[in-house]
Specification:
By secondary structure, the protein is α+β, with helices and mostly antiparallel strands. The protein is built from 3 helices and 3 strands.
Length: 109
Amino acid sequence: MTIQQFLQNFCCKADIQNQGNVNLVITTEAVRRSDNVVVDRVRTNYDIQDMSQKIGDSHTGISLMPFDWEKIVDYTKRAHLDYFAQRAPIDNYYSFDKNTNPDISIFYQ
């Protein structure tokens, strides 16, 4: 299926929950547009304290790539799209290629 066919028939909904400053849970659902039924779901959990330490460590002089919570959420949403691209499948779609796919918001409602 092409990206256009996927977008014509499905959309994604992301839910980002901060669970008591302990866990950050990012859930993405693929929803069929014709009847608003969730056809697939993927969830990622982050330990907030552990990830905060890693973010802090990424801003040191020896780090190759500093990151923050915004980047973590973006990469997680891209990983979720990659999962759906393989499950659907969507032909020739690579969500992590930011040069070709800088804006993933077209998938999300």
